[in-house]
Write a structure and sequence with these properties.
Layout: H1 3-68, H2 71-81, H3 87-90, H4 97-104, E1 109-113, E2 119-122, H5 139-142, E3 148-153, E4 158-168, E5 175-182, H6 185-189, E6 197-203, E7 214-215, H7 234-243, E8 247-251, E9 261-269, E10 279-288, H8 290-340, H9 355-417, H10 422-451, E11 459-462, H11 463-473, H12 475-478, E12 486-491, E13 498-501, H13 503-519, E14 525-534, E15 537-544, H14 551-556, H15 572-582, E16 586-591, E17 597-603, H16 607-612
Parallel strand pairs: 12-14
Antiparallel strand pairs: 1-2, 1-5, 3-4, 4-5, 6-7, 6-10, 8-9, 9-10, 11-13, 14-15, 15-17, 16-17
Helix pairs in contact: 1-8, 8-9, 9-10, 11-13, 13-15
Length: about 625
């Protein structure tokens, strides 16, 4: 991946993560704020219900007190107080009194009871006349207290009501007035609720959940809401029963989160209002999550819109910024590649004064210094080469010149002092002169040959066949009498294939390496010639078991005129390196003192040269020559 794409990806990812983090934070804060507001509204509704409950209870207590203070009820109490015989017979005349008084004071429930709890008159169930009311444990304890919840037994069902008890008179002959109003849909509908909140009442009549016991003032018709079935409340009701405390839960009416409601279930108990009292009902205060779901949906949509726009803007801005940042960097990269390719006069345009511009300016200064240093280096190398050439020539020419000088001096002395011996001295001196002149011609020939190396003439050839020819050439010298034998081993890859090369130059280069290896093993040893393929290239190895080379010798072994031999010119391996270089390859050396030396030639297939050659061209038509 390019630097520009990486920079673009970083910019886009940064914007995406930033927008995502902001959206998540807004959603989290919104959820917390909504939950807090929801709790506050639920608490406010519960407080409102308790206030309405207390207000209705006070009204019930006030109506019951008014009934207890009426003349008709006081006359009944006085009449019953003065009798000691059968109370039921004495109170028969008051059979209809409770019903008329309940209608007059707008009470749903009204009963008159004596001190033993026997019903004197009942408005809701007249047939209970003369029976004991088992719904009260102690009428005297409830008399004058605040209103309380009580489940009232009716003729065909039960009803939940808000009751108050008031006593008339004192002692066991007191008459008690018990009155109340239904806690039903009408009561719940009378609560002033916000538009997105509602309240339901579940009458706890049995140990199992019963949909018929759920009072929902928002339901129409027969009280059944198909969209919000009562069975959904069963887990919440069972949780209140099981834990015996207030519980909160979320009810999902459909797959749409906007239809969800949060319900706060509040247990309602009897007169004692403690956890030990029976659970008479459960108040369900519901709060719609539609506003939260819509707000969440809007935030998500806004986040996606802002995120998409931000990412698009980030792509545009990052493309522009990446272009401004990476364009100079790319120019510097291309300029560095040009310098690496040998174009040292490459320059980079400078725009602005930022760090990239400073880098470009430094690059230009570097190339200028490189050019100057290269010129100085070339001049230095030329001077050093000429000096080395002059030194080597002086050294090579000095050796035969000294015998020539001695020979000429001997001739002059013989002519002057021994004329009679001059002919004999002349013949001997002439032989010496001719030998040393031949030696001078040989030295000059070798230097001349190095100065005009022939260019390779590429042909299709098999490297293995070249190596076999070299071994055949030196086979006699490997086993020559008078010297220790040298064994030769060929490890050739038969699947090597063909390459494009100059067969004569390659043959003579390999011959030079074999000859050097033989010279490195005066006491005998093993010569190994090896070929192989490595990463598409042809590898040729010439290894010996001689004395090896030091690291310093390995570094200088291919330097012209450097030699470790007594009579060598130092041009053999330099010429081999030149031949390998002309073939587009490279040569390297691996050696350690006492562990032999391995010279490795790495050649390419030269496919471009092969494409230019005719298919039937042989690998033996080259006339280029050199000697090492």
């Amino acid at each position: 991946m390019s630097f520009r794409r990486k920079l673009l990806a970083v910019f886009a990812l940064t914007v995406f993560l930033s927008v995502g983090a902001v959206s998540w934070l807004v959603l989290a804060l919104t959820r917390n704020a909504f939950e807090k507001t929801e709790d506050q509204r639920t608490a406010a509704l519960v407080t409102h219900f308790q206030r309405e409950f207390s207000r209705h209870g006070e009204d019930v207590a006030r109506q019951v007190g008014a009934i207890a203070a009426s003349d008709a009820v006081n006359r009944m109490a006085t009449a019953l107080h003065g009798t000691s015989s059968d109370t039921t017979a004495d109170s028969a005349e008051y059979f209809e009194l409770a019903k008329s008084m309940a209608e007059a004071h707008q009470l749903d429930f009204l009963e008159f009871l004596n001190g033993h709890g026997t019903i004197i008159s009942s408005a809701q169930w007249p047939a209970k006349f003369g029976y004991a009311d088992t719904g009260f444990e102690s009428l005297s304890a409830l008399s004058g207290q605040s209103a309380f919840l009580k489940r009232e037994e009716l003729q065909d069902s039960t009803a939940l009501g808000l009751f108050a008890v008031q006593a008339i008179g004192e002692s066991e002959h007191a008459v008690y007035v018990s009155g109340g109003r239904r806690l039903d849909k009408n009561f719940l509908s009378g609560l002033d609720l916000p538009a997105d909140m509602r309240v339901l009442l579940y009458q706890n009549r049995s140990d199992h959940f019963s949909p018929a016991s759920l009072l929902d003032p928002s339901a129409t018709g027969n009280g059944v809401d198909a969209a919000r079935p009562a069975e959904k409340f069963a887990p919440l009701i069972e949780a209140v029963r099981h834990h015996n405390q207030e519980t909160t839960g979320i009810l999902a009416w459909s797959s749409d989160p906007a239809d969800e409601e949060v319900f706060h279930a509040i247990p309602l108990r009897g007169a004692g209002k403690s956890k030990d009292d029976p659970l008479l009902a459960i108040l369900l205060v519901g709060n719609s999550r539609r506003s939260y779901a819509e707000l969440k949906r809007r935030i998500r949509a806004s986040g996606l819109l802002v995120g998409g726009g931000g990412i698009l803007l980030a792509i545009l801005l990052s493309s522009w910024a990446a272009g401004r940042v990476t364009r100079p960097v790319e120019q510097l990269a291309r300029a560095a590649q040009n310098v690496a390719s040998g174009h040292w006069d490459t320059r980079v345009e400078i725009h602005g004064s930022d760090e990239v511009a400073q880098l470009a300016e430094s690059f230009n200064r570097m190339t200028e210094e490189l050019l100057a240093q290269r010129e100085r280096l070339v001049q230095t190398e030329r001077v050093a080469a000429w000096r080395e050439l002059a030194r080597r020539l002086a050294h090579e020419l000095k050796n035969p010149l000294f015998p020539l000088q001695l020979t000429v001096e001997n001739l002059m002395r013989a002519r002057t002092h021994s004329p009679e011996q001059f002919d004999e001295v002349f013949r001997e001196s002439a032989t010496t002169l001719l030998a040393e002149i031949s030696n001078l011609k040989s030295v000059i020939g070798r230097f001349s040959e190095f100065s005009k190396m022939p260019h390779p003439q590429f042909e299709r050839l098999q490297v293995n066949e070249i190596l076999r020819g070299v071994v055949k050439l030196f086979q006699a010298q490997l086993q020559a009498p008078g010297r220790e034998p040298i064994s030769c081993r060929l490890e050739l890859d038969e699947n090597l294939g063909t390459i494009a090369a100059d067969p004569d130059l390659l043959h003579r280069a390999l011959s030079n390496l074999v000859l050097n290896a033989m010279d490195a093993m005066p006491k005998g040893g093993r010569l190994t010639l090896r070929t192989r393929r490595d990463d598409g290239k042809v590898m040729i190895e010439v290894a010996d078991t001689g004395s090896g080379l030091t690291s310093e010798e390995c570094e200088r072994i291919f330097t012209p005129y450097y030699t470790s031999k007594q009579y060598g010119t130092g041009l053999g391996l330099a010429i081999v390196q030149s031949v390998v270089s002309d073939h587009g390859g490279r040569i390297s050396v691996r050696s350690e003192p006492g562990r032999g030396t391995t010279l490795v030639i790495e050649l390419s297939d030269n496919l471009e040269a092969l494409q230019k050659l005719p298919a039937a061209q042989n690998a033996g038509d080259n006339a280029g020559q050199f000697s090492g």
